[in-house]
Amino acid sequence: MSDFSLALNEDQITLRDWVHGFALDVMRPAGQEWDEREETPWPIIQEAAKVGIYSLDFFASAMADPTGLTMVLTLEEMAWGDAGLCMSIMGSTLALAAIMANGTPEQQAEWIPVCFGTPDDVKVSAFGVSEPDAGSDVSSLRTRAVYDEATDEWVLDGTKTWITNGGIAAVHVIVASVDPALGSRGQASFVIPEGTAGLRMGQKFKKMGIRASHTAEVVLEGCRVPGRCLLGGKERLDERLARAREGVRTSGQAAMATFEATRPYVGAQAVGIARAACDYALDYAKERRQFGRAIIENQSIAFKLADMRTRTDAARLLVWRAAWMALNRQPFLAGEGSQSKLFASETAVHVTEEAIQILGGYGYVRDYPVERWHRDSKIYTIFEGTSEIQRLIISRAISGVHIR
Ligand SMILES: Cc1cc2nc3c(=O)[nH]c(=O)nc-3n(C[C@H](O)[C@H](O)[C@H](O)COP(=O)(O)OP(=O)(O)OC[C@H]3O[C@@H](n4cnc5c(N)ncnc54)[C@H](O)[C@@H]3O)c2cc1C
Q: Is 39 designated active site?
């Protein structure tokens, strides 16, 4: 017998079933309503906090799980329940990951609890990189952070766009340029606590999918934060900038460190949506009768379901591998994090479209959930690096060639 196993252990099965119960009982019944309302579902977030899925303890135990599977199992189940609600509850993960990846232990201890609030006064957090003129090209951020030595404060100015929880977060982690001449190597991440003057919400966006999740612009105008809000601290930043100015290659690019760690999490959500569509379309195909037989008896429908299931299961394996590698600090030498996000997101789009086809006209109307799942799935090929950017990362990693 080898040590290799893909079987979940008892704790993992218990965790998965517990989260599945929440997804089935709380999220599924509420998904359509919050999609229509297009508002942050605070009561559902609070419910997740009360049962302990959205909590500091849960996050800490997920980060300490050496198999890496706690977070991806949780996210798959929650997105199976409803992707928009999942993003509202777990959209804070990016900011948390940024604090984990770039913050000192003291900063992690100070800010991570603030991101969650308490079950009675639940809070969310936001991670702001994207700007109107800097989406895929994060090296060209225009938001500036200038150090005011007299007061030991950083002053931030700029506009962030498409920010999940932007303007409603207890903690905004904002990536800004400290030295624009250095491109992405001249950037740093800053914590902006709630109530800081000079940070305000701009436009709130109306979206195609994941409509329960709040997405907005964040405007920074002379926004001052104490020196201790620079993640990693000034000494480390100064050393990093000095090395970059000497032309030494540094790995410490703030935004990328965060995205690397969270790509399997994005993939896991896409797997959850795909699985929801597979399950639903399979049940439907067994029930729906045309020409005197269940439509699943037609190979064209049955083979679609076979392909849908195969792709979804393959996506899950890529996600599990990447999650395990990330938590065990195995370098993504072949872009494994990107592979998981790329394949899972494109699978979710494909599988949900196939589910609509299997349901026919019923798939196209809002009385049935598959059209919502298709709308929800599309964002996974766009945010946290588009599919094209994932292909760039993978092709560069496997070839060593600077593919453009
Ligand atoms: C709902 C939602 C939530 C979001 N949440 C956040 C958040 O919380 N925080 C945050 O910082 N950002 C967030 N984003 C922003 C998201 O990460 C960006 O939209 C994404 O990175 C793409 O940037 P862009 O929209 O500017 O597209 P562009 O970068 O302008 O890309 C347009 C097209 O060109 C392609 N392209 C660009 N460059 C290349 C290239 N070199 N090679 C090949 N193709 C290329 C892209 O793949 C895409 O197809 C969110 C976006 C949405 C819609």
A: no
